[in-house]
């Protein structure tokens, strides 16, 4: 489902999606709403893009139901369904949001995105000076003008909003990062204009042409910037607690029939005899579920990077010696025929307190043992029966 929503969310702002108004009596989507409330989906995937995400600590995905009297009472939060997504996970997933919708969805009407902003570092309420920002410039005579007093300045559109309640409002440095002070009676000035497309304020700083070089003597005259001179500009910008968020497609993942296996998984196995299937599971195997990537497919020609952290204390693996798990094979499994798994690269990286450069890449012929057979269905494929030719003997077959 494509929603295509863009919004700016500041502190205490929330973005709410009305499932009932969007889907009810809306053709095929009317059935989609019924299936959501009948708990027939596993996961909801939301394609998003977030700007200024550095200000975020978490993103809450809330589910709400109607109040007792929907015409009067506000929607009611269902706290047991709220999912908190840390910013690290959002960045790792390229801002794809996914939430469990497999149960307790019968009363849900709204999905709500609630940003939780950072309170530490520059985002602390004690910060009164804002965030330091640097820009690298060159003096350009074509951008200069003379003030009413006859002093020359260069106009510089700033990348950020200027925090104008500080003194001075900016600092100048040369290409050796030496601080350049201004002569007495000369100071910065600035102008504020409104962008005609975004309606946001834009700042232009007027930089004086004359400065005092730190290596000069007090009696030496001020120096002047010449065309092409490098300037490092430092100024402070207000800390912005707010995000721009765009919502694209929404994907509802069906529950598979009659099984609770993951859509795909990685199995770590310690195989001692490749002819004996029992050694594939004994003494152990370690299962790592792989989530669906509905917005990264062979048709979009894109891959999603996923990170898998091993938790040796999660109860899956018993044979641990000196915090080391010995495994001989990684098996990628897709239990359901309606899913397809494509792998671009596998990286095995050891995390250590000691510096290391060891990373192993596996990217050659990952599917070298895959067999493909094609079948042609009739007009009603629901009752078709197909028989595999099995040109080569399958690894898993029959009782195995």
Please mark out the parts with pLDDT under 50 across 5 or more consecutive residues, or reply none: 362-368
Rg over CA atoms, rounded to whole Å, is 30 Å
Number of helices: 3
Distance between the termini: 39 Å
Order of helices and strands: EEHHEEEEHEEEEEEEEEEEEEEEEEEEE
Strand content: 35-45%
Proportion in helices: under 10%
Explain what the structure shows:
The chain is mainly beta. The chain folds into three domains: 2-123 and 242-251, Jelly Rolls, CATH 2.60.120; 131-237; 256-400, no CATH class. It is 5% helix and 36% strand. The protein is built from three helices and 26 strands. The chain has helices spanning 19-23, 29-37, 87-92; strands spanning 2-10, 15-18, 41-51, 56-65, 76-77, 83-86, 96-100, 110-117, 131-138, 144-146, 152-157, 170-173, 179-180, 189-194, 201-208, 210-211, 223-224, 230-237, 242-254, 264-269, 285-290, 320-321, 324-325, 329-333, 346-349, 359-362. The strands form eight sheets. Strands 2, 4, 5, 6 and 8 form a five-stranded antiparallel beta sheet that branches. It has a four-stranded antiparallel beta sheet with strand order 1-19-3-7, with no helix packed on it. Strand 22 (320-321) and strand 23 form a beta hairpin. The longest helix has 9 residues, at 29-37. The chain is elongated, with a radius of gyration of 30 Å. The model is unreliable at 362-368 (pLDDT under 50).
């Amino acid at each position: 489902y494509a929603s295509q929503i863009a919004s700016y969310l500041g502190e205490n702002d929330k973005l709410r999606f009305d499932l009932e108004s969007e889907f009810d009596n809306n053709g095929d989507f009317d059935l989609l709403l019924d299936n959501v409330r009948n708990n027939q989906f596993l996961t909801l995937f939301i394609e998003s893009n977030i700007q200024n995400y550095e200000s975020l600590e978490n993103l809450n995905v809330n589910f709400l139901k109607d109040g007792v009297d929907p015409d009067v009472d506000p929607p009611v939060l269902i706290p047991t369904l709220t999912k908190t997504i840390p910013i690290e996970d959002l960045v790792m997933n390229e801002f794809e949001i996914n939430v469990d919708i497999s149960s307790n969805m019968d009363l849900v009407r709204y999905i709500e995105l609630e940003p939780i902003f950072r309170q530490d570092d520059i985002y602390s309420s004690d910060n009164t000076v804002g965030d330091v920002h640097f820009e690298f410039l060159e003096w350009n005579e074509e951008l200069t003008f003379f003030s009413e007093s006859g002093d020359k300045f260069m106009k510089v559109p700033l990348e950020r909003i200027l925090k104008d309640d500080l003194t001075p409002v900016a600092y100048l440095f040369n290409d050796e990062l030496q601080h350049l002070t201004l002569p007495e009676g000369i100071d910065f000035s600035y102008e504020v204009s409104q962008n005609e497309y975004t309606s946001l304020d834009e700042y232009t700083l007027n930089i004086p042409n004359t400065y005092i070089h730190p290596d000069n003597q007090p009696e030496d005259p001020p120096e002047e910037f010449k065309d092409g001179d490098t300037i490092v500009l430092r100024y402070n910008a207000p800390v912005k607690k707010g995000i721009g968020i765009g919502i694209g497609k929404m994907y509802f993942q069906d529950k598979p029939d009659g099984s609770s296996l993951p859509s795909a998984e990685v199995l770590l196995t310690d195989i001692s005899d490749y002819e004996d299937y029992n050694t594939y599971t004994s003494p152990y195997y370690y299962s790592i579920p792989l989530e669906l990537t509905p917005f990264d497919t062979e048709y979009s020609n894109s891959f999603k990077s996923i990170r898998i952290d091993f938790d040796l204390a999660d109860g899956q693996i018993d044979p641990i010696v000196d915090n080391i798990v010995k495994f001989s094979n990684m098996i990628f499994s897709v239990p359901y025929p309606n899913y397809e798994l494509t792998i671009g690269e596998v990286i095995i990286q050891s995390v250590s307190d000691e510096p290391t450069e060891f990373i192993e890449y596996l990217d050659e012929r990952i599917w070298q043992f895959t067999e493909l057979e094609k079948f042609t269905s009739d007009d009603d494929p629901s009752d078709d029966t197909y028989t595999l030719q099995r040109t080569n003997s399958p690894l898993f077959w029959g009782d195995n």
